[in-house]
Structures are given as structure tokens and as C-alpha cells.
Amino acid sequence: MQNTTELTFEQLGLHPKTLKTLAQNGYETPSPIQAELIPLALTGRDCIGQARTGTGKTAAFMLPTMERIDLAEPAVQVLALAPTRELSEQVMMEAKKLCGGRIKLGIGVGGRPIHLQIRDIENGAQGIIGTPGRIIDLLRRGALNLDKLKVLILDEADRMLDIGFRPDIERIIKQCPKKRQTLLLSATLPPPVEKLAQKYMTDPEMVDLSEDNVVVDTIEQYYVTVDENRKRSLLLRVLAQEKPAQAIVFTRTKRGADKLLEVFSRRLKSDRIAAIHGDLPQRKRDRVIKDLRAGKLRLLIATDVVGRGIDISGISHIINYDIPEFCDDYVHRVGRTGRLSSAENGRAITFVRLDQGGELTNIEMRINTVLPEYRVDGFEAYAPKERSQRTVRKFGA
Length: 397
Hints:
Blueprint: H1 16-24, H2 32-42, E1 47-50, H3 57-67, E2 78-81, H4 85-99, E3 105-108, H5 114-122, E4 127-130, H6 132-140, E5 151-154, H7 157-162, H8 166-174, E6 181-186, H9 191-200, E7 205-208, E8 219-225, H10 231-242, E9 247-250, H11 254-268, E10 273-276, H12 282-293, E11 299-302, H13 304-307, E12 317-320, H14 327-334, E13 346-352, H15 357-367, H16 387-395
Parallel strand pairs: 1-6, 1-7, 2-4, 2-5, 3-4, 5-6, 8-13, 9-11, 9-12, 10-11, 12-13
Helix pairs in contact: 2-3, 3-4, 6-8, 14-15
InterPro entries: DEAD/DEAH_box_helicase_dom, DEAD/DEAH_RhlB, DEAD_box_RNA_helicase, Helicase_ATP-bd, Helicase_C-like, P-loop_NTPase, RNA-helicase_DEAD-box_CS, RNA_helicase_DEAD_Q_motif
GO molecular function: ATP binding; hydrolase activity; nucleic acid binding; RNA helicase activity
Domain DEAD-box RNA helicase Q: 7-35
């Protein structure tokens, strides 16, 4: 990999109008993923980019993609797929800034009036950003035609496969021209993602910025052992001790998120706390994300599906109230903090029951890091007679 520390956007081969727009939006120097991926993608070849969210990967795939668009052609030439509505809308916002109004963009996500999305396509949208389910719906209705498609983008591919979008993705790909460029972006590259790439990409160039340790150094990570019935008390103590600017608390279930919101809204007597999950109406989800961005919320309780769509630089703390079921979900959860634009390190604290030592070990193996124990002075997080069990997990054969 070349040394990219001294590169500028001017050296990446971008159009002068693009460079002007970047300067107007405060983009000064490319991030590592941008410096590596943009020149490769500009050649038109298929590319796989492995980098966590928050490293500037949206610009890394959108900037070279926009260079491929024929501005005189009122047809969909770029399709970007993302796992959630929130993430799709964030990519859309970023893309609009990057193109400076030169390209017509449309969105295709559920929870939004489909007739407005169809109207954007009919009015000559040249780029569509959306979720697989709604894109399938638009294709079925005959509202979306991909015959003129030049670039297909699969953003957060690992998460799209995690939540069951593989059949939809494959159906969409089969309606794309065979002669196209495919860009696949993912924080992790588990076997299902590799198989998808092998099947539908042509000799892709790999840009791997995961650096062995898939969680970057700007995140301080800890575990704390706790009995299930003491988690709420522990969370209160952690919040009091850490005093986060903004924190996301992850739960495994929607019911767990709602219960935690009910309890903590009452105990904290604050309107700066909210929950977000898949059952929440889209209008409420939009309002929660808007309030979080505006700094009106200090604490957000989220499930993994929606949590993956939160791309906000102000998150200082991630608390895994429930240890994630899959190691890759841990990577994505903690990636909500320690962002590219954040001046300070983020902190991630994972609550672990005594019977979950094996799950913690799997996470440590996944990130190639042994997590230190987080201390809460004066708080007894688990029964004294059970302490030795944790010691066995750490130091036993």
C-alpha cells in the first residue's frame, strides 16, 4: 500500500468541478480509504474496500462514481444499496453535498411515499440510493430500469447479508448490465461476502484498511462483568462516572430497548433520552436521528439493525448493555464512536454476564485485542462467590 499521508484530492485524478465542490464543503485532505480507493475506482475496475464506517468511505465510493455519470443522459446510471433507511438517507445527504447539484439523485427506501420516489426516477434521476427491499419493489413495478447502469455499489455488504438481503441483492444484480463496475464496501469480509464478490465481481482490486485490528486505536474498549439483574444499576453508575457527551446503549431486542427507555426516562427524569428500533414508525425514527444529530439527545438506546444506520460524529461512548450475538456486530457497534472527525477517543464498554465469558473471548479473538476490565468504584456488579469464575475465563487452561 502506498504512503497516502501527503496526498491531496488534486492528486487523485478528480474533475476540477468536483475539487471545487470539495473545497466549498471543507474537504481538505483525503482519508486513507479515499486516497486508496478513489484512484482505483476511477479506472472503472471492480473494487472491494474494507474499512469501518466513519473513515470517509461514502466519499471514497461516491466521488469516483459521479465522475462516470453522463450528465446529459436522464437515466439511472448509478445504484447504491445500503442495509437501512437511515444509512441510505445519510449516503444521500453526503452524495448531494459532493456533487454540488450537478447530478440528479433519488432515493428508494421503505417508510417513504413510493410515488415520490417514482417521480424522481421519471424526472431523470441519474443516481439512486436505497435499500434492497424497496429497490426490488421499484423494479417489480417497472418504475426502475437498470439498462443504462454503469456502477453498482454495495455499501456495508456484510450487514446487508447479516439481515437477510442476499436474495434481494442477487435479484437486483441479475437485472444489472453485465458490463458494469461494482464497488463493494464492508467493515468485515466474512465468507458470505467473499462468496458474493467471487460470484458477481470481475477480478476486483482489494483495498484493505482494516489493519489486522478491525477496531481502530481511537476507541478505548473495556468489559465489565455483571449479573443480569444488576445491569440497570451498573448502567446508571457508568453514565455518572463517564459523563458522556452522547452515548448509544445497544440491546439485543426491541422489547429490551423499550423497557430500558421506560426505566431510564423515569429514573433520569430527562427528555434527552430515546430509543430506536425496527418497530418504531419511520417518522419517529427520523425525529430521533434528527434530535441526536442536533445534540438534543444525550442517550440513545438502539438495536443492531437501526444502530448500523447511525453515522454521527458526536458519539463519545458506546455501551453494549447486551453483548452482541455475533463478533462482527461488536465491530460495527463500537464503530459508532471514535469517528474520523472526532477530536477525542471514543470509549466502548461491554457488559458481560458470568456465563458469557466465551462470547467475550470470541470478540477478543475477532479484534485481536484483550479487553481490560472497566472499574466502577464501590459498585458490586456480581456476587462475591462467583468472582473466581471470571478468573478461570481469563487465566485458566
